[in-house]
Amino acid sequence: MPQDPKTDSLTPNIAKAGGIMAASIFLSRVLGIVREAVISGKFGNGTLSDAYFAAFQIPDLLFYLVAGGALSSAFIPVFSEYLHTDREDEAWHIFSSVATIMALVVTAFIVVAMIFTPQLVHLTSPNYNPKHAAEFYANTAYMARIILPAQFAFFIGGILFGTLYSKNIFSVPGLGPNIYNIGIIFGALVLSSFTAIPTAGMTWGATIGAFLGNIVVPLIAMRAIGLKYKFSLDTKHPGVRKVFRLMAPVVFGLSLPGVFALFLVTFSSMGYGEQSGYISAFRQANTLMQAPLGVFGQSLALAAFPALSQFFAQGRMDMFRDQLVKTLRSVIYLTVPISAILIFCPTDVIRVVFEHGKFTSADTARMAPLLTGFAIGVPFWCLQPVLMRAFFAIQNTLRPILLGTLATGIFLALSFFVVKTHQVPFFLSLSGSIAAIVLVVLLIFAIRKEVPDTDISPLFSTFGKSALASIVSTAVFWGIFRAVDQIGLGSNKYANLAVALFFGICAMWIYYFITKALKMPETAFLDRVTNKLNRGKTPEPPATDPE
Rounded to an integer, what distance in angstroms lies between the CA atom of residue 279 and that of residue 34? Predict the structure, then answer.
């Protein structure tokens, strides 16, 4: 059946949005890894770095308690619904009311958290090494109080970004995380020289970067599209009530993606805190795992989310199903080879990224098994944000949060067993991967019930062929590093970095050619990129129809 020309003209370019978000988040993840490399090289893995990483637990706890992660996910479908059904003035009224109410609520929580910071630090990071406990807890509380105000920027920024996404503006929200990371790097390299606690310079840089990237820059963009804000505490408008109703399940749930990092640091402190450096090792290994999650999982989820919300609002469920499956297939295709490299070559990756300055080969050996455990779940961590937003797009937040709470329960049970039975740290990171796999399986079967006729069979085909191609590309990557070790470049960081980049790209091309030989439709975009480069033209955006 032909579509309404009006709605066709309004259909968002998901491929272009995905490209913008992937590029923005790729830069953010690169800066994130640079940030971690700067921190590890300057401060190593010890009590000082442990305190810095643990300081983020209090703000993360606040973010979770006030359902910060759900705010934009609840706001975008409602704002889009009013915006795309010719009720723009009401959409801006909803924006004003939600922004005002959340600003007051978050401010109150920040004040309370700053008062009780010392108590909260002991709650989130128990059983630290007794020899350094006094220094650790004092430094953690001090730095946590510096970071806490940044949460105001993240909450309000989430609403601003949600509005820009609904207007199909993706470039500005992509700047936020990059400015934030630059702030931390600036804090480590410059501000740390002027603070009593050296790592506190990074917390000041984080707070400054949060306000610049999440409030100042998006407000400038909002003014350009006609920002209409008026102070309002209207809780009776049906749109405002719907936003908070959609948020409610997250407030009372324990969704795995929202609390994983929080509980991870707590369990690493509980089980291995007597050995200084393990909190840092878990956090940094998790950062490496989060890189593909951000670049491929979150970017494609954020790009598809406004479109999925629009398709649902317009009743175009055939396009909703089609776009969801294509996005999931793209995520699988892009993340399986990365997962394989992180699983089988963790020492090589860590050595290239972190091993310099005060970060030693002993730190690499400690982190490697943790990265392997995390890496097993990479494709599933990347699939879950797409599936979560599919539920949010159809304005159903209860079911994914219930499933997320169940997966969290599995993670907590496994983690508690690991630390209480004194298992090796690898099993703590593996617990997270197992929970992520369970969550994705549950979400896939649940979305099929919510959106009938969703065909998931192509996902298995994509996964199987991607895994087969990854075996060969990873073997090449592993073999190159063994050759490098033999010729003695292993001690030269810059030589290692050059080798990793060059042969990492070679491994990816091998993966591409194998998947092309297997006739995987996801290779179509690279075909067009190559053709356009050969003709000296700008490549087209990736196709939204892989098959």
Answer: 19
Report the Cα 461 to chain-centroid distance in Å.
Answer: 26
State pTM to two decimals: 0.67
Two structure tokens written together for 252: 């009372």
Residue 134: other Cβ atoms inside 10 A: 10
Minimal CA–CA distance to 376: which of 304, 426, 334?
Answer: 426
Three-point CA angle 527, 532, 534, nearest 5°:
95
Q: Which two tokens stand for residue 437?
A: 């796999």
Q: Where are the domains of the chain?
A: 12-455, 458-529
CA distance 164 to 218: 8
Q: What does the block give as tokens for 11?
A: 């259909």
Is 256 buried (19+), middle (13-18) or exposed (0-12) by CB count in 10 A? buried
The 3-state secondary structure of 276-338 reads CCHHHHHHHHHHHHHHHHHHHHHHHHHHHHHHHHHHHHCCCHHHHHHHHHHHHHHHHHHHHHH
Averages of pLDDT over each 10 residues, the chain, 547 residues = 39 55 69 79 78 82 61 75 78 88 89 89 75 85 92 86 77 80 90 87 92 90 80 86 77 63 75 68 82 73 76 83 88 90 87 77 86 92 88 82 86 89 86 92 91 87 92 84 62 65 79 88 67 48 38
Q: Copy the structure tokens of residue 404.
A: 């997320």
Tokens of 501: 């980049």
Q: Please report the DSSP string for 49-85 in residue order.
A: HHHHHHHTHHHHHHHHHTTHHHHHHHHHHHHHHHHTT
CB 324 within 8 A of CB 458: no
Look up residue 357 and give its two tokens. 């300055």
DSSP annotation of 538 reads: P
Q: How far apart are CA 69 and CA 149, in angstroms?
A: 17
Backbone angles phi, psi at 358, to 5 degrees: -85, 0
- Rounded to a whole number, what is the distance in angstroms from the first to the last CA of the chain? 20
- Please check whether residue 52 is in contact with residue 203, taking contact to mean a CB–CB distance below 8 angstroms: yes
Distance CA 88, CA 164 (A): 14
Question: In the prediction, which pLDDT does 541 show?
Answer: 38
Token pair of 266, please? 């707590």
Q: CA–CA separation, 94 vs 516, rounded Å? A: 48
- Provide the residue count of the chain: 547
